[in-house]
């Protein structure tokens, strides 16, 4: 069996960059990476320019093993005699070279994951975080920014997300509204389904009559029983997203919203 | 992926009474017929806990971050 040794060596050398690139990016699609080929290779090469020098420095400083460029060039050459000579040289240091590449691949997986977690934890990628945002923002994850509140400043961050969707049910447009708990994207990065809780529904045609009281408004809604409501994005005609914030009141003179609760409870029992 | 939900929101959703108030708020908010005839609906919910007693929270819709 013939093995294209130079190609194999180049692959082993470049692999850490591709690993690091894939672990650093937060992409919502998982089946295919539609990034331009040039961008993929450039990013991988940049990661290689970081990892290889770091590992070579560490190997030289900690263990006294330095890169032997002549050996590497002989491995990549097409001359069989030079390759054979280089292979013998590699065989003498096989354990060290294996340790170098295995630790490099592990580092290329762990370090970018750590960076990504740090960016997410400290929210360095939110839209108005600073001048460095274009480099840290995960541009292939629009739903992540829309539905996790990652773009909000800490002091302006809402407490929950309300979702209202119009769904065609047996030829009738029905408005579903509830609190967003979870969401999933499909392999292409499109929103697949939303998991809602505390869901209510009403026919879209049952709009509020003029001059209706709050009690009359609420009577039109029916509570959807169950812990979670799965809404497939493909079945939603329109989707409305609202960020809701709950601010603690310091004044105790605000009226209790008991009448509205009673009315909704009555509607629940009628469902 | 988990959506945005603060610890306070989880407490509200775990409390049946507060949940009903939240539902009432959502229902009334969805019922506003037009901007010109917006009715001032009750946007305050109460949450009871053993530590803090009954605490009032005002619900507001915040615009999306830039």
TrEMBL record, chain B:
<protein>
    <submittedName>
        <fullName>Uncharacterized protein</fullName>
    </submittedName>
</protein>
